[in-house]
Amino acid sequence: MHDSSSIESVLHEQRVFQPPSANTAGAPRWLIGSIDEYRAMHRRSIDDPEGFWGEIARAFHWSTPFSRVVDWNPPDARWFIGGRTNLCFNCVDRQVDSGHGDDPALIWEGEPIDGEPEIRRLSYRDLQAQTSRLANALRAMGVAKGDVVTIYMGMVPELAVAVLACARMGAAHSVIFGGFSAQAIVDRVIDADSRVIITCDGAWRRGQVVPLKDNVDAACDQLSKQGHAVSHVLVCRRIGGDVAWTTGRDHDLAQVANDASPDCPCEPMDSEDLAFLLYTSGSTGKPKGIRHTTGGYMVHTALTSRYVFNLIPDAGQVFWCTADVGWITGHSYIIYGILPSRVPTVMYEGAPNHPQPDRFWDIVARHRVTQFYTAPTAIRAFMKWGAEHPGRHDLSSLQVLGTVGEPINPEAWMWYHTHIGGQRCPIVDTWWQTETGGHMITPLPGATPTKPGSCTLPFFGIDAAILNERGQEQPRNTGGLLAIRRPWPSILRGVHGDRERFIQTYFSRFPGSDGKPPTVDSPSPFYFTGDGARQDQDGYFWIMGRVDDVINVSGHRLGTMEVESALVSHPAVVEAAVVGMPHEIKGTGVAAFCTLEPGHAPPDEPAAKALRAALREHVAREIGAIAKPDSIRFTDALPKTRSGKIMRRLLRSLAAGEEKITQDTTTLEDFSVLARLKESEEG
Length: 683
Ligand code: WT7
Fold this sequence. Notes:
It contains 19 helices and 31 strands. About 55% of the residues are buried. An 8-stranded mixed beta sheet has the order 13-12-9-7-8-15-16-24, sandwiched between helices. Helix 4 (about 125-140) crosses helix 5 (about 155-170), helix 6 (about 180-190) crosses helix 7 (about 210-225) and helix 12 packs across helix 14 (about 410-420). About 30% of the residues lie in helices and about 20% in strands. The protein is of the alpha/beta class and about 675 residues long. It has a domain at about 550-680: ANL, C-terminal domain (GMP Synthetase, Chain A, domain 3). The chain starts with 6 loop residues before the first strand and ends with a helix. A hairpin with a 1-residue loop joins strand 5 (about 105-115) and strand 6. Bound molecules: 5'-O-[(S)-butoxy(hydroxy)phosphoryl]adenosine. 5'-O-[(S)-butoxy(hydroxy)phosphoryl]adenosine binds next to helix 10, strand 25 and strand 26.
């Protein structure tokens, strides 16, 4: 274990943006309207978690009230003990019961656009009927409470219905992102011991059809060779046309749902019953099935939705999160956190640049979106495509902008603020993880002054700290390990089938409660996030990236994100990824991969050399000579997962000059990127 206490912080961002004041024309009512109000509520949530969370949780529907708020026996947290509730009921039925059955719950827009786009609006009553039918159909196929149903679909309304139908009947879902391969399905289905798959014939993506059903067929063949029988496959028809059909196993989703009764009471679930598995990659190969349970996840995702996005029912708001439901962001902030808030949630089927690079802004204007939540990687793509695209649309409905997934470089933050937010909308940079279930460190839009690139301050109930390896708090402006010192309601409850990996990954970084090195039997009480970060003089958190990505250059540790941010602040660079590479003298050198602004691509090798020299000087100026990249490659695209995460391990291999990529590339979005990157080697 290395000591990260000296991760050097080299980013100097000084700008502060005050939250819009309550009486700004056109500004919404802010649920938390000042930093003092935030601080008072945060203090109470830490001093009296039982009182704070108990009160919040009692506002939900429980068929049996909980008797205790929290029980913490590291690494095991239990929340709302003894309570019974149902996620689907709190998302859907409660709204119907309170007289809002006909209000829009889900606004869906399809990708193909031929004149008018295809739009479907589902009310809470529609969701109630459709989830009931599907839940009954699943029961008829032998799915029982606690079974795992695999969902591998495109972004269609039936996906939201499938997820909620599982919750309704007490089955756990395992949603697999529709961009993953057949092999990914095989691994996850086996790990979860799942026997039923819900899929689509295909999905639209940038005008092309993704053959989802073919992939499921290939996975099922592979699975049966491995002795694992999938008994039922339900197929939603999105594309039309023929797909291969295995009689007895395959069923038409619309047909089985239609044949089922629209009456299905919600199954009372223990607060700690499994709600879902969601697979995420770790530093080693095998994906981890992150376990989330019912009550705590429900309360945390709904509370963060409300305060972080400032959701107010009946105020004409429309919320849009651009993530795929295949990721935790889609689970928590398209479905489970938003529906209980009674603000309609937008779901868009396709790509941001289909048919044109202005599609997102077209959607914002058409549906009068008030909250917009996306990822920094998308914002950098928008920057590259040009400000004229949002400029053509009326974005005046927007109230709050959000980002998630990686640190946002200040340039992208400023572009978002200027060209999307009209310098009017607060930006919430939300730090969290698949494992945390919901937001952890984030501004509140009406309360928190923001600094571009900082996720600011912990949410209610979150006791975040920067620690060294001994578990001691680091001084301000000193990098260290980001840890959470006590459980929150939506903390992961385990890694499916792997207790040891659960403890090793998250509860073994800091000493145990007895001060001794942690063991599987006496784990650390602090949750380790895997991220390096620092707190500035105001207590604001600045994420420096995964600790695995930290580069040690001549004994000085550099967060990769800060070097990347410096590169991107040069006018020629759109996006940059930095990794460590073996270096004769320094031990580790800095290797940079940059995509360039159109018009800045060097026409020949002398021009490329000159640009490299200019970028090195630029980084030296922004950060210091220590961070100067030793190698810079220009490329038209970076290798990314389909969720937009840069695949640094591939870049590390390339930077190290490895001839053959022997690593797992199944999650890579575009294989040709790799070949082109290899050719881009510095001359
Ligand atoms: C990792 C979690 C949470 C949903 C999407 C990603 C990085 C996430 C931020 C942010 C800086 C961020 C962290 C974290 N990350 N949000 N606002 N600022 N870094 O979920 O795949 O579980 O990844 O994403 O490194 O640990 P995930």
